[in-house]
């Protein structure tokens, strides 16, 4: 199997509710690499890479683990895989 990469942009109640913390925890639990960051407009961007089935499990796991966040809309964009990315980080802002 080969890795793929996706970018998600979440809108709704996703800032100030631990969204980045839970997203990072979920990604690490699933063995994904990438990052998550708040945006100036109140949205959150998340980029992750791994196997397709694992990426498919990421958003549902975030939703189950964070009862305070309310995702109203998600935009998903496929991206090229980044070589030599070894961890998952929580960034302060994009």
TrEMBL record:
Keyword vocabulary terms for this entry: Hydrolase
Active site: 20, 38
Residue span(s) of domain Acylphosphatase-like: 5-92
Protein name, as recorded: acylphosphatase
Annotated GO MF terms: acylphosphatase activity
Record carries keyword Hydrolase: yes
Keyword Hydrolase attached: yes
EC number assigned by the record: 3.6.1.7
UniProt xrefs under InterPro entries: Acylphosphatase, Acylphosphatase-like_dom, Acylphosphatase-like_dom_sf, Acylphosphatase_CS
Reaction(s) this enzyme catalyzes, per UniProt: an acyl phosphate + H2O = a carboxylate + phosphate + H(+)
Family, similarity comment: Belongs to the acylphosphatase family.
Family matches, as Pfam families: Acylphosphatase
């Amino acid at each position: 199997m080969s890795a793929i990469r996706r970018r998600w942009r979440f809108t709704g109640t996703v800032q100030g509710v631990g969204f980045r913390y839970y997203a990072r925890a979920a990604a690490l639990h699933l063995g994904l690499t990438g990052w998550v960051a708040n945006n100036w407009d109140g949205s959150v961007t998340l980029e992750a890479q791994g196997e397709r089935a694992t990426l498919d499990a990421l958003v549902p796991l975030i939703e189950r683990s964070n009862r305070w966040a309310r995702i109203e809309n998600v935009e998903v964009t496929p991206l090229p895989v980044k070589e030599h990315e070894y961890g998952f980080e929580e960034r302060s802002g994009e």
